[in-house]
Amino acid sequence: MSKEELTERVRRIIATAQHLPEEKVTADSTFAELSIDSLDGINILFAVESEFNINIPDEAAQSIRSVRDVVEGIARLLAEGPVRA
Amino acid sequence: MVWRKKPVTVYPFPDFAAAMGASAGVLAYAVRGPRSTLLAPSVYRGSPSRPAIALTFDDGPSESTPELLEILARYGASATFFQCGANVRRLPEIARDVAAAGHEIGNHTDSHPRLYFRSSAFIYRELQAAGETIQRVTGYRPRLFRAPYGARWFGLRDAQRRLGLMGVMWTTLALDWKWPAPRVALRLLKGAQNGAIFCLHDGRRLEPRPDIRATLQAVREVLPKLLESGFHFERVTEILCPKKN
Fold first, then answer.
1. Where are the beta strands (DSSP E) in chain B?
2. Using the beta-carbon criterion (under 8 Å), do B21 and A31 form an inter-chain contact?
3. What is the pTM (predicted TM-score) of this model?
């Protein structure tokens, strides 16, 4: 999956979760700019996990603060491949 | 019907953390129960690194809620109340008192139905009606939801998403509706741990004037002991999303 496709999917997830027009969510948007708070962020993580069929460690969630953070984190994970539980 | 659990793919935390960047972000620590996300996303505990416990009370408000508020105030304890819309309409002043005391209010449906085998439209209406009632009466828009009986069903995920609600389960179910106070208290003390979410009840479904003496007595007994043990009490949002120092 290209970075552009991944970004589009993440933008769509966030726009849907936050009831925002998709064009308002850009790759450069910070969560603060989108008025995404902590609880919203948890909901977004659930949606991301469901969309990409991954399990994001709770500790890692604490450092996410922008759309780009989400995209880059997922891209790197997908590139590295899964680790057996 | 064949149930299939989503294959769990675990990625190493350090790599993910590095990918996400090291600076503080806005997302919270919350342990999310993988098994509980099948029908709707939900959290069930807070960070295990902080000695905080979230007291939650379902099925209120009831005529006995004010007495519970007094006990909580005595110990400086914040809590989260998952209220039913029908009970809020019956006792609006008490619902407002809960909010005015600084407690968090969550959505516990309008009429406390079992959600299983119900249509998606029914589930949505139940959550929407309760949310509207709570907001109209207390001015507080619930962002947390707890399913009656903890039972969730197809359609709940979409309803939660549309209404912006996060599901909340628990680490310890007090069984306070059927056990005597000493047994409830013992169960809570055994369940005390960092990030715990206790589920108690300040009502009994939609029953007027419910007998919640076991709940009140157990809370009276447990709160000072937990404080002595070094725990403090937070609302669910705080235990999920602790403010950084």
1. 31-32, 42-45, 52-60, 79-83, 104-107, 144-145, 166-168, 172-173, 196-201, 232-233
2. no
3. 0.83
